[in-house]
Amino acid sequence: MHILPLALIALSGVAMMLPQSAGAWGGTAHAVIDRAAIEAIPDDGPVFLRRHAAYIAASASLPDSWRGASENFSKIEEDPNHGWFREQFAFVRPIPRSRYEFILALYKHHEQIKDSDPATAARTNVRWTGTLPYAAIEAYDRMVVCMRQIRKAQAEGVSAAFPEQHCAFQAIRLGHYIGDGGQPLHDSIHSDGWIGDNPQGYTRDRSIHGRFESQFVDGMGLSVADIAPRIGAPGHRSGDMFDAVLAYLDEAGDQVETVYKLEKRNGFADFADPDVRALIYERTAAAATMLRDMVCRAWAESASPPTEVKPGPLDFDNPHFNPETGSAPD
Fold first, then answer.
1. I need a surface site. Which of 204, 251, 292, 302 has the fewest CB within 10 A?
2. 56 with 49: CB under 8 angstroms?
3. C-alpha separations of 315 from 170, 230, 318, 320 in Å
């Protein structure tokens, strides 16, 4: 039997007691998504994560605790990782394959419009656009690295306990961002009430976010058993993973108006409402499926040695080198 160190057990318990941010799936949904994803890992996948399922699920909301106003350095860095307000940066095409190139594109546009359209400029910045896909793919890359360490330990016949724990922690991070991304209100400027022109008369009340993802989810008693049958066979076995994450976020963002329509007809008031329940089942299952697919793809990728990149991403001779960021995206 694999036993977690006391420090990790303590961290797991602390995470369960942390107050939940109003800006993310509530603790119930995050825990259900992570647990369902881990349980859906096939036998040829990273099955070692099953040993850490309780830790991962209990800590699923941990990244929200890094967003407290009393820890402002952490908050400023972490807040954007939980959203992707795509209407706000429609002018950025294609989406850069570098977090910093994306931030620079926002800043340049902000400078262009700050005098002519100060209201839009005030939200044309990293905080009010979000960096969720970058946070997700960064956690994914780190998971590939620690999975290589597990394979190395296994090949050498030594304990893989520590790299397993490293991977479990990255699964917490990845699971949180992918979970957030599956919630439509994390993928739109209308995250906390409808903004701007409102011909359909949707609510502008900020509480819609919490009433949908926390109050209703808790009230309906969402469980792993509800979404496990909705998780199909592993996918995303090939293709570009960053592009896959962007497509996943777009799919969720396309359902923003569905959330507002359900709220408008007072669907959130009845925990038995079949349409609201169906949307939550579909969205949490989609998140669990994507998370399961990503950890399985990371495991498959870790079987190959790291690709040698020449010239390197910091090399001025790299044809993709950007002197504004000091690096080259892949």
1. 204
2. yes
3. 28, 46, 5, 9
Mean pLDDT of 137-161: 98
CB 52 within 8 A of CB 168: yes
Report pLDDT for 330: 87
Predicted model pTM: 0.91
d(CA 167, CA 120): 40
Q: Which residue(s) pair with 327 in the sheet? A: 322
pLDDT tops 90 at residue 26: no
Closest by Cα among 58, 61, 49 to 167:
49
Taking 50 as the threshold, does the pLDDT of residue 3 lie above it?
A: no
Using CA atoms, how far apart are residues 304 and 300, in angstroms rounded to an integer? 8
Q: Between 27-39 and 161-181, two packed helices, what is the crossing angle to 10 degrees?
A: 120
Of 31, 25, 45, which Cα lies nearest the Cα of 167? 45
Q: What is the pLDDT of residue 215?
A: 96
Q: DSSP labels for 215-248?
A: IIHHHHT--HHHHGGG--S----SS-HHHHHHHH
Q: Write the secondary structure of 60-127 as one string of H (helix), E (strand) and C (coil).
A: CCHHHHHHCCCCHHHHHHHHHHHCCCHHHHCCCCCCCCCHHHHHHHHHHHHHHHCCCCHHHHCCCCCC
Question: 77, exposed or middle or buried, with CB in 10 Å at 0-12, 13-18, 19+?
Answer: middle
Percent of the chain with pLDDT over 70: 93
Q: What is the mean pLDDT of residues 142-171?
A: 98
CA 68 to chain CA centroid, nearest Å: 18
Nearby residues of 199 by Cβ (< 8 Å), 6 or more positions away: none
- The rounded mean pLDDT for the chain is 92
CB 74 within 8 A of CB 66: yes
Phi, psi of 327 (to 5 degrees): -155, 170
| 76 vs 74: CA distance, rounded Å | 6
